[in-house]
Amino acid sequence: MAVLSPPQPNYLLSLLKADCSNKPIAQRCHDLVKAMEDYSPKELQVVFPWLVENVFGSLDGSVVGWNLRFLYSRTHPTDFNTVSEFLDPGGPMMRLVYRLQAEDYKYEFPISYLPGPVRASIQEGVLPDCPLYHNKLHFPLVGMSALSLSFNPFEYYLLNFAIHLIAPRSFPVGHISTSDSAYFILVDRYLNYFLPMEGSVPPAPFISGCGAVSPPAPRAQTVPFTSYTGPHTSLLKRHISHQPSVTTDPAAQEIWRSEMLLQIFVEMWLHHYSLELYQKMQSPQAKLEVLRYRLGVCSTPYSTTTLPAHGTFHTYQEPFTPTEEHVLTVRLLIKHLHSFSCCLSGPETPGPSSSAHPHTNSPLEDFKRLAIPRFVQHKFYVFLQH
Q1: How confident is the model over 293-308, as a mean pLDDT?
Q2: Is pLDDT of 218 > 80?
Q3: Bridge partner residues of 207 (DSSP)
Q4: Cβ contact 227:126 at 8 Å
Q5: Residue 350 to residues 235, 239, 355, 366: CA-CA distances in angstroms?
Q6: Among 127, 105, 101, which residue's Cα sits nearest to residue 114?
Q7: Cβ atoms 281, 129 nearer than 8 A
């Protein structure tokens, strides 16, 4: 009996699209789980961007997605439970993310859908002071309008998850998302999973044939960009970069997911402010770089691209006002971070007996101490100015 070759990726994508257009959401989740189990990462990596858009909606708001912000257990208990299980941090969707992560696939994300201050900064050639954006710029052959960032599957998924809160959506009049929506519940689950009060972050699943899912390898930046405050070393690199691989602490290998989740939530939810506040946050180094652009004497090489349009900082305005739902979600984030930062298992400073019984902080403990001052404090203060 002849062995049939597996369907081509475009066939799988067409099949899933057809199923999702005429089946209830519970059946869709069941079919998606089966496809994730039956097909290889090579076949599924083509489906992944469509699947993310189908769940969270398109970045421009034209595709609503699964309406996570308006899905409640009290009105649609079956759909609520099915979707919550499917998107749970330990559920099928995240297992797919880890499978693709192990294969080192990359996905493009247009900078035009990033928060206004980030977008304006990158268009000026100044990278925000956040490792999330470093070494990920993808330049078009001409111009700067089509700039995009290249993210790994974990980053790409969480970016779309976070932007779902603030992306424009068309909903029936009178619909108000509350703290018992599927989206709000999932945010709480992700915070508790990746920023645990007690214990450590659950390890990423072991991928057969590929080993454990490891932190993304650093990528060389093809075109140099200026950073707000110069190089920024992640907590992960600080813990494992100088250790032999055979003795690397597994906990240090795992906190990259916690660090990335926090960076994405903060950047997407808190990085919104007016022109005046935006300019105040620029370091002297960044301001000098902008001045050099405007004077036409910037020495930063842009290879085959043209220089960013002058005056982006000058003309940038963001009429941003957070919704009540946005504020509630930020409140949940800050409240969780406060508890997360206070749950430390070891002394912050050496005690009298430290020489006899030295205490070595784990990577997660150090992350707890530094998470708020390093990633959150400044942006949250500015967010409160709205």
Answers
A1: 41
A2: no
A3: 211
A4: yes
A5: 21, 19, 8, 14
A6: 127
A7: no
Task: Give the SS3 label for residue 150.
Answer: strand
- Give CA–CA dist 187/311, Å, rounded: 37
Tokens 């530094």, residue located:
370
User: What is the pLDDT at residue 244?
Assistant: 31
313: pLDDT strictly greater than 50: no
CA–CA gap between residue 33 and residue 40 (Å, rounded): 13
Tokens of 140: 């078009």
Distance of CA 267 to the CA centre of its chain: 8
Using the Cα atoms of residue 265, residue 268, residue 269 and residue 274 in order, give the sign of their dihedral: positive
Q: Where do the domains of the chain lie?
A: 9-104
Structure tokens that stand for 302 in this block: 């842009």
152-175 confidence digits (pLDDT tens)? 999 999 999 999 998 876 665 556
pTM (global) more than 0.85? no
Residue 150: pLDDT band by 50, 70, 90 thresholds? very high
CA–CA distance, 154 with 158 (Å, rounded to integer): 6
Here the contacts of 373-379 (C-beta below 8 Å, separation 24 or greater) are 375/130, 375/262, 375/263, 375/266, 376/262, 376/266, 376/270, 376/334, 376/337, 378/281, 379/266, 379/270, 379/271
